[in-house]
Amino acid sequence: MKRHRLFIGTFIVAALTVLAANAPAATAPARPNVIVLLADDAGWGDYSANGNQQLRTPNIDSLARGGITLDRFYVCSVCAPTRAEFLTGRYHSRSGVTGVSTGQERMSLEEKTIADSFKAAGYATGAFGKWHNGSQWPYHPRARGFDEYVGFTSGHWGEYFDPIIDRGDGRYTRAKGYIVDIVTDAAIDFIDRNKSRPFFCYVPYNTPHSPWGVPAADWERHKGKPITQTATNPAQESADETRVVHAMVENQDANIGRLLRKLDQLGLTENTIVLYFSDNGPNTWRWTGGMKGKKGGTDEGSLRSPFFIRWPGKIPAGRTLPEISAAIDLLPTLTALAGVPRVGTKPLDGRDLSARLLGRATEPGPERLLFSTWQRNITVRTQRFRLDAQGQLFDLVADPGQTTTVNEKNATTATELTAAAAAWRKEMFGDNAAATKSKAEKQAAKKAAKTAGENVGRGQAVDPRPIPVGYREFPATWLPARDAEPRGSTVQRSSGAPNSSYFVNWRSRDDSIVWNVDVHTAGTYAVEILYTVPAADTGSTIELSLNEAKLAGKVAPGWDPPLWTNQDTIPRPAGESKMKDFHALKLGTMKLPAGRGPLTLRATDIPGKSVMDMRALTLTLLP
């Protein structure tokens, strides 16, 4: 009997062991994927979810229906600052981002990004589209936490059809198709290749930013269509610009639909956080629900952005949260939602909204102030009020159009917010002057820009921080015209907007083009220049020099293509360069020592009328 019991006991233990061995292993809940979709220059009022009846954005709207709308979500006046605030969770003034071009858009290397945090946690990370926080390594997105990158690193781009783009190595090559399709294709491919592991996918689109280019099928739906919802001041609105913006937003919506369907096909929808917002107010005067302001200002319509976030089964569907929030909140919120430890020790300005989004907190957090600044003009937003850059107080609940000041009725609030703005100014800029000094600063900046060169563009002096060159892990350094300073009597930018410009009217041996560089690695560099020149003007001798290092060569062969006429649906705004196909001139190789100095391109002999038009120079560190 004893032996029988022993046998039964042994059998049961063995059976349980077999069952345990064949049972599914207990696993921790899968970490969510994260997709961040960012529009460029779209306003709060550019979506059917927000009441615009002149266009349809069903895919973007589906994020609102399937998730939460942050009804009072704020960004910056212009592009690069918003991107920096999203990436760091800190006000852009802390991170060295002071402008949108000529190096001022570069985010300090001391900052850690949201991608750094997700990458450290084992996520695949990719960015696809307009970066706008630094072009050269280690400012490049591949050095800021992103494993992969496809897009362009500057501000606005002059080519929307068959553009040149960076595929992650700092070299620009020509792609085929419409730029929004191209970056969406790259994002979908990234998702497909990383479907079996958690991923963080950032898709910063460059529409509806000008130039006004959109595929013909999208334009045909809006060409000649009546404008039934107008700008707050209808006299300021250009009907055709509004129509092309609507076409561009609908095109973007269709691309987002492709991306969302890919999630469905891969079975990833339930475990993917998807969010959408824009980087500033609308770039033209158009419908904003009656708000005051547009891109470049500091009023409500300049800073309020759409914001929709979806995570099926986790974030309640179809809800709207009324409390104020901002781009600085996204890093702490997304890392908390995903359970990802934050990389970096600098204090954040943003607030973790995860408990509110998940429904674990039923009330908003403590009262807060949101600050925004552009060109030292500071505005403060509370849940109810906005103190504008001129010190005028508005009740945004009663008066969303900012038509009537309420300083006298709310004197205590006006005084407190004025003091808060002064303290914030002192913290960010080291001074405590208000509007009077702001005007003086503008005059000083204008004078400095003129001293730096008449052709720098729109008063944007080239950033004094040197451009890093020559890293073994990233051998190619793209040095566009945007980052250089024209010197001399004739050479100038092709337009007042530096971002997608090139140098023209180079006719004198006294002219030069100068990049302030810092060579990280001494070595031999291959030099390539993107240029055009009429056949009759070929043969100029040019010299590239850095301190004692020099390289000379001839500008040949002739390459003089016409300006493109098929890029624009309607004429691009004045001040934006019309583009053309530039040819690569392999100038040769030169040995560069480590250290700082002016990398100078000049002509020593000009047999024709001009030297060349020049878009960019690339230095490639050879093995």
Report on this model:
This protein is of the alpha+beta class. The protein has 3 domains: 33-360, 3-Layer(aba) Sandwich (Alkaline Phosphatase, subunit A); 367-433, Arylsulfatase, C-terminal domain; 453-621, Jelly Rolls (Sandwich). Helices cover 24% and strands 25% of the residues. It is built from 12 helices and 27 strands. It has helices at residues 2-22, 58-65, 79-88, 114-120, 179-193, 216-220, 239-266, 300-303, 330-338, 354-357, 411-429, 435-452; strands at 33-40, 68-74, 124-130, 148-152, 164-166, 172-174, 199-208, 272-278, 304-305, 307-310, 319-326, 370-374, 377-381, 385-387, 393-395, 467-469, 476-480, 485-487, 492-493, 503-504, 512-519, 523-532, 541-546, 549-554, 583-592, 595-605, 613-621. Strands 1, 2, 3, 4, 7, 8, 9, 10 and 11 form a 9-stranded mixed beta sheet that branches. Strands 16, 18, 21, 23, 24 and 26 form a 6-stranded mixed beta sheet that branches. The radius of gyration is 27 Å and the shape is globular. It starts with a helix and ends with a strand.
Q: Tell me what portion of residues adopts beta-strand conformation.
A: 15-25%
Figure out the total of helices.
12
- Percent helix, as a range, is 10-25%
Stretches where pLDDT falls below 50 for ≥5 residues? 1-28, 433-459
What integer is the average pLDDT? 92
Domains (count): 3
Q: What is CATH's topology name of the largest domain? A: Alkaline Phosphatase, subunit A
Broad shape: globular
Oligomer: single chain
Structural class: alpha+beta
Name of the CATH architecture of the largest domain: 3-Layer(aba) Sandwich
Q: What is the radius of gyration computed over CA atoms, rounded to a whole number of angstroms?
A: 27 Å
